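User: Structure tokens for this complex, please. No commentary.
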Amino acid sequence: MILLVDLCYEKYSLSMYEFVFPIADIVKRAKVRYDIMHHSEVGLITAEKYDKIILCGTALKDGIYLENMDSFSWIKECTRPLLGICAGMQVIGSIFGGRIISQPSIGLQEIDIVKETSLLGKARQIEGYHLHNYGVTLPQGFEHLVGSSDQVEAFKHEERFIYGITFHPEVRNKWIVDRFVKLGYEHVEEIFNR
Amino acid sequence: MIILKLGVLFSGGKDSVFACYRAMAANEVVCLISIISENEDSYMFHTPNIRWVGRQSEAMDISLLTWPTAGQEEKELEDLQDAIVAAKETHDIEGIVTGAIESIYQAVRLQRICQTLNLWCFNPLWQVDQVDYLRLLLSEGFEVIISGVFAYPLGPAWVGTKLTDERIQKLRQLQEIYRINPSGEGGELETFVTDGPFFNKRIEIMRASKTYDNYRGYFIIEDMRLVEK
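Assistant:
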């Protein structure tokens, strides 16, 4: 069971159709069950009940999640595989010590995957859809997978199964969400059992 | 709860009508914004029967703001921005709603305009499964007429017909064989909505004509009336 965390400005907002349901649709097509919860309702106990967690993005004009960063503190202790998309990546980065920075981008852009991972695959160039005003600096303990160290477009925790991508995979790159959902996490258990 | 005053970019087709319906559920739609293009192959704006949007806005009981454009590829974006500025000034809108489903071309341009004007941008049909969406339109009680077809193998029988379960099933089959977008997102077909669950009155088409040549057909509405529901 996957938990989709809605980062939009309020529960049941009009933005859900654009930033949460398209992700839910990909999960549904992967034949995996999911729940959707607004970020204001999620804490560590709730998060730990799920197999994996996806933090979804939100609208360009929506900065309310940035004002409620304390409510995401559970992320640091959460043992579940996490994927943060756009605003979700910013939240993960910030919780682990990164700094939110102005990094506006709208539209399709070439994306340079610079490091091979189980989620994004081999180093190569793909095209991704960007829709964000902010980015986040690379937190300690993370490696950048896309972009450069001063403009991180995707990152991964060095040990834990935590990914962030700044572009929107629901456009042109649905395979990323599909792969996150389907990836076995035997190697994650191995890490937590060390 | 945040209730925003929104303007809906409105063509009279199913996508803008359904986007409006979703927006109305939790926000205040204060105006419809219709761009009247002189170019029937406009990159951004649907043209068949656009002259009837006034009657649709009357049926929906929502104010309409119309704005002309010559329909030249990038100039029409300036016209669109001017129309949105006018809606902001006259209706005090805080955001725009569009019926974009897949078109990155449309979405990116609208997002940039909204960013420039400091407005919210909502796309409540974004990436929706097109066949599921067509079925939802019918189950929610919308009446949709196929007012234009522009792709092989959509023949003259499609022009002016109502969207039905059978038609959706056929579009699904054509999607598999010919890769057409069932909801017409790639310009394969255009629609006109005559009724919906939030319409105060339904539209009855009194007179219309059809043209069809080489997989390009129009259903031109020539007269209509509003009927009490």
